[in-house]
Write a structure and sequence with these properties.
alpha/beta, seven-stranded mixed sheet, 5 helices, UspA domain-containing protein, UspA
């Protein structure tokens, strides 16, 4: 299986929630890329892809090929977004940033850094200021990704998108530390595993 495509209407009766539990469950279980498409989305050729990252993933072991293929075939631009928490990147994170620069060197891409209190706020802010057609994230345990989804609705900061969401499966190393400091401090909690987003 090369790709799973799911339509999603979100949770019943919760208008502000994007994904229901079935979609979230699939995101956590599938071993290939998953494309989640909001029910009201009208297709258009993607021109800009947004890829939020804390550079804490070993990208050499993750399936980024599908992203490069989209960029090449659709003549898109890739915006790589890092949230600035005021902490310098570790040596590992710098290595991953360099890997991305080399990996996408033949494509149109840009690095961005935004100072926000959380990743969801940064993503929302970037979408407000820039045209984004597709959101891409790597689903790695112990990264900010899983904490976006397994959290009580009452504590939801507001991770709401109206565009397709491409989730890449976890296959490589992930770390949350910037020089030994956990940058997921805005996400960590004992979230119930049956929570919806």
């Amino acid at each position: 299986m090369d790709l799973v495509v799911m339509g999603t209407k979100g949770a019943t009766g919760a208008k502000e929630i994007l994904f229901g539990s079935n979609t979230v469950y699939a995101m956590q279980k599938v071993t290939c890329p998953l494309l989640a498409i909001p029910s009201q989305y009208v297709y258009k050729t993607p021109k800009t892809l947004l890829f939020p990252s804390d550079f804490g993933t070993d990208f050499s072991k993750n399936p980024l090929q599908i992203v490069r293929e989209i960029l090449h075939q659709k003549t898109c631009r890739l915006d790589i977004l890092n949230v600035d928490f005021g902490i310098s990147l570790s040596e590992f994170q710098m290595q991953q940033k360099c890997f991305l620069r080399e990996y996408f060197k033949a494509e149109d891409f840009r690095f961005h850094s935004i100072s926000e209190k959380s990743v969801p706020e940064a993503v929302n802010k970037f979408q407000e200021d820039h045209l984004v057609d597709l959101l891409v994230m790597v689903n790695n345990k112990h990264s900010f990704f899983e904490n976006l989804f397994f959290r009580p609705v009452v504590n939801q900061i507001g991770f709401h998108i109206k565009i397709p969401f491409l989730v890449l499966p976890p296959t490589g190393k992930a770390t949350t530390a910037h020089n030994g400091v956990d940058t997921n401090q805005n996400f960590h909690s004992s979230y119930p595993k049956d929570s919806i987003i």
